[in-house]
Amino acid sequence: MRRIVVVGASAAGLTAAETLRRRGYDGTLTLIGDEPRPPYDRPPLSKQILTGTWEPGRASLRTPQHLEHLAVDLRLGRPATALDVPGRRVQLADGERIGFDGLIVATGVVPRRLPGSGLTGVHVLRTLDDALALRTALLAGPRVVVVGAGFLGTEVAAAARTLGLEVTLAEPEPVPVRRPFGDRVGGLVAELHRAHGTRLRCGVPVRRLRGTDGRVTGVELGDGTTLPADVVVLAVGSRPATGWLAGSGLRLGDGVECDARCRAAPGIHAAGDVASWHNPRFGTRMRLEHRMNATEQAMAAAGNLLGDATPFAPVPYFWTDQYDTRIQAYGVFPPDAHPRVVHGDPSDGRFTAAYGHHGVVTGVLGWNAPRELRTLRALVVDRAPWSALTGTEGSVPTAPEEVSP
């Protein structure tokens, strides 16, 4: 194997390239990215970049000197448009074809949009350019409506409120972040935003975006009301960036479908947001849009491309920062899982909770409680029985209904 191509130049793609070099691969290594910028980190986009506490350059993942030392053939601003699996070639938008012996797909996701997204004043947030354009719009002091109250939407709403703007958060679910955390923790997130002055319209679907003379003027809800807006941020989810793989022969479901070793085909692996793989720890197929997974899976995919043959079986870890609150979680959170407070009290703004499903602990959550949460992670790693929580110190309600905002 003397030619390896990595498609996707964000956290997963860069980590894959670094892992290959660290593991001793000294052949040709090409890193292809659709953006002209060198690799940068995405979590700060919805927080530090939007609020202006970071300059854009601080989001860069590596210095130019580091990238030069990596001896990578960088093809930035040149998106991949097709994959020829039998011919072992990746085609770029300018028509160039790059041959490979090994390939890692790390193209991430693209934001979903709504009809009317072309109106001036409507934004999505995926790239650094998106974040800079949105920050410029926010500095004009507009009325802001954020559509979608998942992690991204609630983070953007928090950033806009930090800037002192009038913000409304619209979400068809009854509470924010209902998936993955359920109604009770979602209710706590709702109270957090209300306490900081954000208006919430939950439980009502969005019907359409309204505009005049090509500029957005509001968001019409399913009950007929319209939320006035000068800026609308769409945070309605994303889809795997697999369009360039159509017709390649790779299995494309909810992402690039891989086995437990992140292998999509002989000599072809996938990592990060775009990869759907079987996680043997939980016995299920999953695709994770989490920053930590991008790094860990890229390392696993690169190692397996070089011959490790090691199943990738992580305990997922993710977090969100909103106002003065950090919510962290380990594991998986099925829709019908039962939450139970383990330490602390939600009314005090500091607690941990465990989630049980089919008699075992599948996930743990910490609300401003990082130290306690790290201890609880072992429950998920060991797939501890739900009954193990009965001996845990602290407030331990006996039913999920007792986890109240």
Give a quick set of tags describing it.
405 residues, FAD/NAD(P)-binding domain, Enolase-like, domain 1, five-stranded parallel sheet
Summary of the model, kept short:
By secondary structure, the protein is of the alpha/beta class. The chain has helices at 11-22, 48-51, 64-69, 128-138, 151-162, 178-195, 291-305, 370-381, and strands at residues 3-7, 28-33, 73-76, 80-84, 89-92, 97-99, 102-105, 109-111, 122-123, 143-147, 166-171, 199-202, 206-212, 215-221, 226-228, 231-234, 238-240, 252-253, 255-257, 263-265, 268-270, 275-279, 284-286, 317-322, 325-331, 338-345, 350-357, 360-367.
Describe this structure in words.
By secondary structure, the protein is α/β, with parallel strands linked by helices. The protein folds into three domains: 3-110 and 239-305, FAD/NAD(P)-binding domain (3-Layer(bba) Sandwich); 113-236, FAD/NAD(P)-binding domain (3-Layer(bba) Sandwich), CATH 3.50.50; 324-402, FAD/NAD-linked reductase, C-terminal dimerisation domain (Enolase-like, domain 1). The chain contains eight helices and 28 strands. It has helices at 11-22, 48-51, 64-69, 128-138, 151-162, 178-195, 291-305, 370-381; strands spanning 3-7, 28-33, 73-76, 80-84, 89-92, 97-99, 102-105, 109-111, 122-123, 143-147, 166-171, 199-202, 206-212, 215-221, 226-228, 231-234, 238-240, 252-253, 255-257, 263-265, 268-270, 275-279, 284-286, 317-322, 325-331, 338-345, 350-357, 360-367. Strands 3-2-1-7-21-20 form a six-stranded mixed sheet, with helices on one face. A five-stranded parallel sheet has the order 9-16-10-11-12, with helices on one face. Strands 24-25-28-27-26 form a five-stranded antiparallel sheet. β14 (215-221) and β15 (226-228) form a beta hairpin. It is globular, with a radius of gyration of 22 Å. The N and C termini lie far apart (56 Å). The relative contact order is 0.13.
